[in-house]
Amino acid sequence: MTFKRLSLIATLITLSLGSAVAADAPKPESLIKWRQSAFQVIAWNTGRIKAQLEGPYNKDEVVRAANSIAALANSGLGNLFAANTQTGKGWHDTTVKPEFFSDTAKVSELATHFSREATALAQLAPQAGDAAALKPQFVKLTATCKACHDAFKRSE
Amino acid sequence: MTFKRLSLIATLITLSLGSAVAADAPKPESLIKWRQSAFQVIAWNTGRIKAQLEGPYNKDEVVRAANSIAALANSGLGNLFAANTQTGKGWHDTTVKPEFFSDTAKVSELATHFSREATALAQLAPQAGDAAALKPQFVKLTATCKACHDAFKRSE
């Protein structure tokens, strides 16, 4: 077997493995749809907590909502921002700014803050018996949402 | 002040309170969008676990995904199926069947199964060191997804 033939076989194997990986990897539009969905679910749950702070306080409702936010904040949302998703459409055109894909240090810092404050809220929720006990940590959490939106989200 | 006038004032107050509540309550299209988002997030995470069962097994990835599914399964998704959301559009036209809103006993039963198996998977994940240890519980969980889809979800 010549080197040329071996090399051709190696190339074919590589191409074939490459295709297999590409076929299994989620499509960019799926990744964008999933991240848009995840942030909607977070919005639903922050809205539920806000309603408890404004109205009669239901601790169970706050615990459920805070657990959902914390689970998603720690779920690895960063995986949904693959390099091939800088533009494209999920449920709608992505609103991520190009800077998200270049300023990785800042992305990592803001994601860490979000995860930290969401985890703290979920830990506090079962102990917090009223709005006054929960509110300071909720304000800390929503500040991390705003910081990331200000830096990396285009207005729709 | 006459009774008639008092009665008019009472009616106006009632109407005004009614409007205030309606303004605060999420719109049907928001509820539908949130539930469609929640089920997309669950699909993302079941897909991640499936990939771990088929490929190299990453326990941390499974734990993160299982926690997200369990948090959403226990988040009170039923609140997103208010009576005024039998038809309507979130990201797309709802695919819920009318039976969902009449056969509440079956809905409750299937929701309980989903929640129970999702919680069990999240409890198992940190202990399961490989695909073989996790798979039986994952199969149990996805069976509860299918049971509910078969009963209450129109094909799109």
The largest sheet of chain A, given as strand count, sense and whether it forms a barrel, is: none
**Rounded Rg of chain A:** 21 Å
| N-to-C SSE string of chain A, H for helix and E for strand | HHHHH
Q: Tally the helices of chain A.
A: 5
Percentage of β-strand residues of chain A: under 5%
Give the termini distance of chain A in whole angstroms: 60 Å
Number of strands of chain A: 0
Q: What average pLDDT do the residues of chain A reach?
A: 89
Q: What's the overall geometry of chain A?
A: elongated
**Category from helices, strands and their pairing of chain A:** mainly alpha
* Helix fraction bin of chain A: 55-70%
Tell me which oligomeric state these chains represent.
homodimer
Q: Show the largest interface.
A: A-B, 28 and 29 residues
Uncertain stretches of chain A: 1-23
